[in-house]
Amino acid sequence: MIELQHISKRFLSNVVLDGVSLAVQDGETVALLGPSGVGKSVTLKMINGLLKPDSGDVIVDGLHVPKLNRRELAELRSRIGYVFQYGALFDSDTVA
């Protein structure tokens, strides 16, 4: 099960998520839809532990994701499939 409990996230003065809650049961299929910049990728990165919420909690299979250590995060990520929009984990890096 995936639970988002009142999560909020901002980048400088830009509020991306404000008090979002969501529960996804095992086996359930959910689509996050919306225009660019509404927080879809930020939400997925929080579920995967790539970003921490400024407030609220992210719980995956009973684990409080923002509180996991590196080993626990690696184990969680090994059970989650994630395809980045442009195929790169570090979208700010370039190859020269």
> Strand portion, in percent?
25-35%
| Rg, alpha carbons | 14 Å
User: CATH class, anyone?
Assistant: Alpha Beta
Order of helices and strands: EEHEEH
Poorly predicted runs of 5 or more residues? none
**SS-based structural class?**
alpha+beta
CATH topology: Rossmann fold
Write the layout of secondary structure elements.
Layout (H helix, E strand, L loop, with lengths): L1 E10 L2 E11 L15 H9 L6 E6 L2 E2 L5 H8 L19
Walk me through what this model shows.
With 96 residues, the protein is an alpha+beta fold. The protein has one domain: Rossmann fold (3-Layer(aba) Sandwich), CATH 3.40.50. 18% of the residues lie in helices and 30% in strands. It has a four-stranded antiparallel beta sheet with strand order 2-1-3-4, covered by helices on one side. A hairpin with a 2-residue loop joins strand 1 and strand 2. It is globular and about 40 Å long. The model has no long low-confidence stretch (mean pLDDT 90).
